[in-house]
Amino acid sequence: MEFELDEEQRMLRRTVRETVAKVRPQPEDRQWETYRSLGWLEAPPLELALILEELGYAADPTPFLATATWFAPLTGRLPEGSGTAVFDGVGRYVLEADRADEVALLTKGGVTVVPGADLGAQRVGILDPHVHVAHVDAQALSAGVPDLALTGLAATAVGACRRVLDLVLAHVKQRTQFGQVLGSFQAVKHKAADMHVAVERARALTHFSALTIAEDDPRRTKAAHMAKAAAGECQRLVFRHGLQLFGAMGFTWENELQLHLKRAQACDLLLGTASAHRKALLTA
User: Fold this and answer.
1) What is this structure's pTM?
2) Nearest Cα residue to 85 out of 77, 74, 76, 93
3) Are 134 and 122 within 8 A, CB to CB?
4) 147-280: what fold?
5) What is the pLDDT along the chain (284 residues), one digit of tens a residue?
């Protein structure tokens, strides 16, 4: 299993980064149409993880994550518009369920695709106001979370944590305290280094998970649990250190930091936190 990105994959990452930066100021529907027209939804697992990391970095508001990693792996096709899936057996906190054109339900009789409007899903408020989550009232639901769904959430969280780290580094390089640049203090360097290590560890496990899915490796379920757990642990450390290094500014609504901290934490909470996936590894 080749673990290094090849030149085409590195070029894809650069292209996605540039495209997302260009369309980010546009309305959400324009962003969504751009991503669909570029064929990103049809990307193989590893390339999809690279795309999702860049979208997580930009706090993407579109239904890309749910469409590519919740709906598609369950139904084997892309939806007519946007889609999501209900596969946790309870139908609670379903990503994009309130605005999806199609919803795939994993039931005891198999997978059933229904128009999103027919479910009457009710959006519920969570800490990240830009993430659409809803409760779904459906019968005979079964549990069976696709590995790609866990990997997609992990990749998005890694992107959000990477953005927090970049914001923190930019801040401590220009902020002064006691006549010294904040980043010159050893304690600050240690915290920034810990954040970097956590992000790289979570990123490596996310890439490994995507590779096992691409190759249908028997370790794919275990790898997905490992990626989700590592991303959750990463966001907790990045959340704590990011806020501390920003000081009081990190708590304000005007600061961009809070957007990415909320996105990372939302990804951790959806489909089980880090502790839940560490326990799942015992039986995977």
Assistant:
1) 0.95
2) 74
3) yes
4) Butyryl-CoA Dehydrogenase, subunit A; domain 3 (1.20.140)
5) 567 888 999 999 999 999 999 999 999 999 999 999 999 999 999 999 999 999 999 999 999 999 999 999 999 999 999 999 999 888 999 999 999 999 999 998 899 999 999 998 999 998 888 899 999 988 889 999 999 999 999 999 999 999 999 999 999 999 877 888 878 899 999 999 999 999 999 999 999 999 999 999 999 999 999 999 999 999 999 999 999 998 877 777 788 999 999 999 999 999 999 999 999 998 87
